[in-house]
Amino acid sequence: MMESGFFSRLFDLSFSEFITTSVVKVLFILGMICGALYAVMLLLAGFSQGGMLALLGLVGAPIIFLVAVLLTRIWLELIIVAFRIAENTAMLVAQGEREAR
Question: Which of 18, 33, 62, 78 maximizes the CB count within 10 A of its CB?
């Protein structure tokens, strides 16, 4: 099976090839950036209120960031597993069709 280019897969109207496996790295980076921005906003909100909320933001922001990155990673891995199952199943079907001839 020949590897086609990104844009040819993007505009493939038959959906015979998947593009998700190509963009998953970008999606993970975007997820980490969003998690970091949320953690920074939580930290800044805590410091703007002062007192106990500042301490809560200082402790909670890194925890929130790690949980967000972990959940993003798990979600993306589940998506990749589903696509790999589909790709491997298609290869097995094609192999079975060749052997049947």
Answer: 18
- In angstroms, the CA 28 to CA 22 distance is 12
Per-residue pLDDT, averaged over 78-94, amounts to 92
**Of residues 33, 25, 21, the one with CA closest to residue 69:** 33
Beta strands in 1-101 (DSSP E): none
> Burial of 36 by CB count in 10 Å (0-12 exposed, 13-18 middle, 19+ buried)?
middle
The total of other beta-carbon atoms located within 10 Å of residue 61's CB is 20
SS3 for 11? coil
Distance, CA of 101 to CA of 92 (rounded, Å): 15
Site of tokens 């060749």? 98
End-to-end CA distance of the chain: 19
Residue 65, SS3? Answer: helix
